[in-house]
Amino acid sequence: MGPHTSADDSVYMSADNLFKGAVISVLVENLIDSYMQLPSGKAVWDALFANFGVSDAGSELYIMEQFYDYKMVDDRSVVEQAHKLHALAKDFVNVKCELPDKFVVGGIIAKLPPSWRNFATTLKHKRQGFTVAGLIGTLDVEEKARAKDSCARGSEGGSSTHVV
């Protein structure tokens, strides 16, 4: 960028003044005098953040707790639940704590419901690495196969006739 012209400076000062006024207009009365004397909107913002800005540690801990405490159950779709866990893992990005794909994959496998324990063990023995999308695809195939098998078992045992 080149040197600033007086027109550029005028536009900047106008925008800064508007910003400073907007920020000060939402302050409670007893704070206005303290921040009104600051020279720019950025100075007001920085001073407010220094005094009142806090890290979102409560939110971080809440997201972590949700991820750690999530339990998959047998009476809901495993794929749906895996997507929910993946969404919780993505929430970590918002608090600047991105989880590696391997960790999320391991978490999903570890949280599979009890009826999926044998399948989880099989997944752990595979040598190739999984992505979250790849794992969810594998879970989808297995879930559909299980649904098909249970439908087949249901029709086999539907009615029977005993001949004496």
Beta-strand portion reads under 5%
Overall geometry comes to elongated
Average pLDDT, rounded to a whole number, is 86
Q: Helix proportion of residues, in percent? A: 55-70%
N- and C-termini, Cα separation: 98 Å
| Biggest sheet overview | none
Low-confidence stretches: none
Structural class: mainly alpha
Counting DSSP E segments of at least 2 residues, the number of strands comes to 0
Give the H and E element order. Answer: HHHHHHHH
Radius of gyration: 29 Å
Question: What is the count of helical runs?
Answer: 8
Overall tally of domains = 2
Question: Could you explain the architecture of this structure?
Answer:
- With 164 residues, the chain is mostly helical.
- It has 2 domains: 6-52, no CATH class; 57-156.
- 70% of the residues lie in helices and 0% in strands.
- It has helices at 6-25, 29-36, 41-52, 57-69, 78-94, 101-110, 117-125, 132-156.
- The protein is elongated.
- The termini are far apart.
Secondary-structure blueprint of this entry?
Elements lengths: L5 H20 L3 H8 L4 H12 L4 H13 L8 H17 L6 H10 L6 H9 L6 H25 L8
Which key features would you list for this structure?
single chain; mainly alpha; 8 helices
Structure summary:
The chain is an all-alpha fold and 164 residues long.
